[in-house]
Write a structure and sequence with these properties.
Elements (H helix, E strand, L loop, with lengths): L7 E7 L2 E7 L5 H8 L18 E4 L2 E4 L5 H4 L3 E3 L6 H13 L8 H14 L5 H7 L11 H12 L23 H6 L14 E7 L5 E5 L2 H7 L3 E5 L26 E2 L5 E7 L1 H6 L7 E5 L6 H5 L14 E9 L2 H7 L2 E9 L11 E7 L2 E6 L4 H12 L6 E5 L14 H12 L3 E4 L2 H7 L6 E9 L5 E13 L5 H11 L8 E10 L13 H19 L3 H8 L19 H23 L5 E13 L9 E8 L4 E5 L8 H13 L6 E5 L16 H24 L6 E5 L2 E5 L5 E4 L10 E9 L18 E13 L4 E12 L6 H20 L24 E7 L16 H4 L1 H13 L5 E2 L3 H14 L1
Helix pairs in contact: 3-4, 3-6, 12-13, 16-23, 19-20, 21-23
């Protein structure tokens, strides 16, 4: 039966079966597979052939199914991730064993591309593998473990992830607890499910950065398009038409109220059938625009007399950050060498492969939102505010999240679909296009930094100061967090007695800047680490040596006055890379002595990063339950965005309880079923939620031991309803079915809550902003073509102090992925509003761009952490860009102060240097 006149009957041969499908002939094969056949393992990340997430096999060869029309596929053999296929099966096992799937959104496409490669070449080299998967982008993994997994399958290696015995999960390289669904293509992301009768929503967005607007007769438009159920404007918002991260800063409207502050801001929402909302062009809507001059860049926002974006912020300075200790002027006078400079970074796009998607459903007087997110309870708060109902009337059900990196902390689709479902009484879904996602969601803050550093004749740092302006765009988002975190971190992980750092978050008529893996610290590290190389050069010291001299260590005091009593592993990190650094420098200098257009350079950089919110409470609460039927469930409110918290927290909880991870079921993030575990950001989940998970496990264990009258060394075993507590002669078997159960069948439960011990910073930034810090040293090798100005990173050695690697495979994967994003920041990623709102013009690293990476995990245990662990997600990125800049300088003598170092910019700098010589 054909549903619409535009459809025709087509015969598709998919995964060995014949299917009769009614579809529009020019509808993409990807859309037909997903929406008509329910094969949602094929993902759509760009709908333009740029990301490769939709890769399937057609007649055995990989194709982007978003570029193939359904009619073109008729009669062709199509293989998707759902197929039972011997090579695909082996790839699934290898990806799982190697940790090659992080968020999992690119995994189906990557496996299908690999299957094509191995069908053509059974003995591929690394270069062959890079070429074979080169059409599929991954934002999480850095490709290293993907390449390892494919190579294993080619070698015929049996790839099976190990299991951990009871009490031995922490430190084990077990497979991701949620990994099977990712490699099978059955994990459900935001666009993968919705009620069959759901309406579609499309936001109409401003083409102008600063403008006022009025609407004509929208009711006439609705009447002329029968498929439209509603056209929503600011006047339709039932509660507050504003949202924001901070309780006192709710400055961003759900739908603009007659004026817009950035290009891409939503002005109205079309709700109706998919055909109606997609078929109605923006130009057909009666919107009259009056365009005003826009403030672009922090200089414009700070210009005297510049119009205020927000009435309560007349100077456009959203917030200021400050830290001062000692006497910085006196410290500079003590120095035998002083270096200073101006540095700039631009907008950087998160480029997660999954665009924002989800659906909302009204259930009586409650609203339920199922969507991709990094912060379920924050979504709950914002939706409740916008609908005008209590938080208890809102349920957030997180889907699998196809990457986040901070970009899915702010609400995006959640208020829109919640309002639409609330008002229409029908389920409403939305899937952002790639362009819409990139145009409207937050970015890394552009920065304009001046910094000055001094050191004595021995190379000991005597003073550091900086001023930094960060472009927070039209709305606050995470601007206050960036402004407050940067002054704490700006000196880097070094002993500096005299410090003065000041920052401003500045409003402009540009896309809001928010959280992105580092909250401003990567930008500050570029400035600080460059100045350290300056000082080393002036003093005739080795770049590694000056960092080792000044490396903060146990017992040292940070610029905030905090004494690091434990887990300060930077000296060990630097020592771990020393041999590599020396050998790489010697080899590069020997190669460069031969002359020629290609120059090789080696760079080094260090970093530190505070785990958790800055000087703020950020608790997490966890729960583990055991039913009369023997079902053990870990109720975990921490959203896993690919970093592996579902697995890591399970390992911690399992060892605390004393049962193997395989005994657990788990519930993730559902606000009706889990407690608030806080947002997945600030490298806090392993440390903060890990502690809560450990306490929950210990709590349940204590109740079991008390019930059995057993000692602390007793061993547990769960077999159906039989819970064995082995403790010598005192052991016993508990029949769970005989215990009193609550209304849900639970007979025993353990809970744990943890909030890191921090203090509020005073007016000079003094106090304890974080309970613990991650540390790292990275060495980068580059080759530079001095004629073309191109840079290729060929090797990175990264030593990271992680306290304790709960799961070394996942920890290494975080370092690999962080390095990939740091490489992009350094060399290629440049978001230009209106120009790079796609994954064709906005470049992120591909498999072929990645260097050889050596990861060295340093375990300097954190006594405050669960089993000694602390975070690594953001620390993985911070040192990479400055290390690459250091290497470029070593190769060419050019001191680059702006990223990305695009070829034309480096070429121009090389010409200036040559002219000066």
């Amino acid at each position: 039966m054909l549903d619409k006149p535009s459809e025709i009957a087509l015969t598709l041969h998919v995964n060995g079966a014949v299917h009769q499908v009614a579809a529009a002939p020019f509808a993409s094969l990807a859309d037909t597979l997903r929406e008509r056949m329910g094969l949602t393992g094929t993902k759509i990340g760009c709908d333009a052939g740029d990301c490769g997430a939709c890769t399937v096999l057609m007649e055995g060869e990989q194709v982007c199914s978003c570029l193939i029309s359904t009619a073109q596929a008729e009669g062709k053999a199509i293989t998707t991730i759902e197929a039972q296929h011997p090579v695909v099966d082996r790839l699934r096992a290898a990806f799982l064993a190697h940790g090659a799937a992080q968020c999992g959104i690119c995994t189906p496409g990557m496996i299908m591309a690999a299957a094509d490669l191995l069908g053509r070449n059974q003995n591929p080299s690394r270069r062959d593998i890079e070429d074979g998967i080169g059409g599929v982008l991954c934002r999480c993994t850095g490709y290293v473990k993907i390449i390892e997994a494919i190579a294993d399958v080619a070698r015929g290696t049996n790839s099976l992830a190990p299991l951990a015995e009871a009490g031995a999960a922490v430190g084990a390289r077990i497979a991701r607890a949620d990994g099977v669904a990712k490699v099978a293509g059955t994990d459900k992301f935001g666009a993968d499910s919705a009620p069959a009768d759901a309406l579609w929503l499309r936001a109409v967005r401003s083409p102008h950065a600063h403008a006022r607007f009025t609407f004509g007769d929208l009711e006439a438009v609705k009447s002329a398009h029968p498929g439209l159920a509603a056209i929503l404007t600011a006047a339709d918002i039932p509660g507050a038409n504003s949202f924001g991260i901070f309780p006192t800063i709710k400055d961003q409207p759900v739908l603009a109220p007659g004026f817009v502050r950035y290009r891409g801001e939503a002005v109205l929402a079309l709700v109706g059938t998919r055909e109606a909302v997609e078929g109605l062009a923006d130009a057909a809507l009666p919107i009259a625009w009056t365009v005003d001059a826009a403030l672009i860049g922090v200089e414009a926002g700070l210009t005297e007399g510049a119009p205020a974006l927000h009435a309560n912020i007349p100077d456009n300075v959203l917030t200021r950050g400050y830290l001062e200790t000692g006497d910085v002027e006196a410290g500079h006078r003590l120095g035998a060498a002083t270096a200073e400079g101006h540095f700039r970074t631009g907008f950087v796009e998160h480029a997660y492969i999954e665009p924002e998607a989800g659906y909302a459903l009204r259930v009586g007087d409650r609203i339920e939102v199922t969507a991709c997110t990094q912060a379920a309870v924050m979504d709950q708060e914002e939706v409740a505010r916008v609908i005008g109902v209590p938080m208890a009337s809102v349920r957030i059900v997180p889907t699998a999240c196809g990457g986040g990196f901070g970009g899915k902390l702010d609400v995006s689709i959640q208020p829109l679909i919640a309002v639409a479902a609330w008002l229409t009484g029908k389920p409403v879904r939305v899937i952002y296009s790639r362009t819409e996602s990139m145009a409207s969601t937050t970015k890394r803050h552009p920065s304009k930094i001046w910094a000055k550093a001094s050191a004595d004749t021995q190379g000991r740092f005597t003073a550091y100061e900086m001023t930094g302006d960060f472009n927070t765009g039209a709305y606050a988002s995470w601007g206050p967090t960036v402004a407050n975190r940067v002054p704490v971190h700006a000196t880097g992980p070094y002993k500096v007695p005299h410090v003065k750092n000041a920052t401003r978050a500045v409003h402009t008529h540009e896309v809001p800047a928010g959280a992105f893996r580092g909250f401003g610290v990567p930008q500050a590290a570029i400035a600080g680490e460059t100045l350290i190389d300056d000082l080393a050069e002036q003093l005739g010291l080795d770049r590694w040596a000056i960092r080792r001299i000044n490396a903060i260590d146990h017992g040292d005091r940070t610029p905030t006055g905090q004494v690091l009593h434990a887990s300060a592993g930077l000296p060990q990190c630097l020592d771990a890379v020393k041999a590599d650094y020396d050998a790489m420098v010697a080899a590069a200098e020997a190669e460069n002595a031969k002359g020629g257009r290609i120059a090789r350079g080696i760079g080094v950089a260090c970093m530190w990063y505070g785990c958790g919110n800055t000087s703020m409470s950020n608790p997490s609460r966890m729960r583990i339950t055991l039913t009369a039927g023997g079902k053990l469930t870990f109720l975990n409110g921490a959203v896993d965005i690919g970093q592996g918290s579902t697995t890591v927290l399970l390992q911690i909880a399992a060892d605390a309880l004393g049962l193997p991870t395989t005994d657990f079921d788990f519930v993730i993030g559902d606000t009706d079923r889990t407690y608030d575990a806080g947002k997945t950001s600030a490298s806090r989940q392993t440390f903060v939620s890990g502690n809560a998970s450990k306490l929950a496990g210990l709590d349940l264990r204590a109740k079991i031991l008390a019930l059995a009258n057993a000692g602390p060394q007793a061993k547990l075993k769960l077999d159906g309803t039989r819970l064995t507590v082995a403790d010598g002669e005192a052991g016993r078997v508990i029949d769970l079915a005989t215990l009193e159960a609550d209304e849900t069948g639970i007979v025993l439960a353990g809970e744990g809550q943890y909030d890191p011990p921090t203090t509020v910073l005073d007016a000079k930034g003094q106090g304890i902003p974080y309970a613990t810090y991650g540390f790292a040293a990275q060495v980068a090798e580059v080759v530079v073509d001095r004629v073309l100005g191109t840079v290729k990173v060929t090797r990175i050695v990264a030593a990271h102090d992680v306290g304790r690697a709960i799961n070394p495979t996942l920890t290494e994967g975080q370092v690999h992925g962080g390095i990939a994003q740091g490489l992009g920041l350094a060399l290629m990623e440049e978001y230009l509003p209106g120009r790079t709102e796609n994954l064709h013009d906005y470049l992120i690293p591909t498999a072929g761009d990645m260097p050889d990476i050596v990861v060295k995990l340093i375990e300097d245990p954190e006594p405050e952490g669960p089993f000694g662990a602390k975070g690594v997600g953001e620390p993985a990125l911070v040192a990479t860009a400055p290390a690459i800049l250091s290497a470029i300088r070593h190769a060419t003598g050019v001191r680059m102060r702006e990223v990305p170092v695009l070829p034309h910019k480096l070429w121009e700098a090389l010409q200036v240097r040559e002219a000066a010589e």
